Amino acid sequence: VWSLGCVLYHMVALVPPFYTSNILLLAGKICAGEYDHTPLQYYSESIRQIIFECLTVDPSNRPDIVGVAKLCTEQLMLYTDRSCATIQSLKKRLRQSELYYLKQQSQSQSQQQSV
To answer: What is the DSSP-derived secondary structure letter of residue 62?
Structure first.
């Protein structure tokens, strides 16, 4: 879960959460959980909360993967709903295109037979 927090932070901030050229300072930042929260301000409260929870230093206070999934549930449901709506819309458009194509072919064949 800690690693997930690091990866998510890196994905949204485009820099790792803990970075310094001095290895001792790096270890200190990691142990203290000191990272720059500024890059996260441009993202939703939910992603900030997930990253914050995953990067909790004390493992007993950090959520397990089920806890992380619970933090993501609302966003996943919204994404699923939007995806289903998009799929239904695309299916409808495809069916309309198929019907139009079949109608055009039928008219073309009728014209050829009448000639």
So the answer is: S
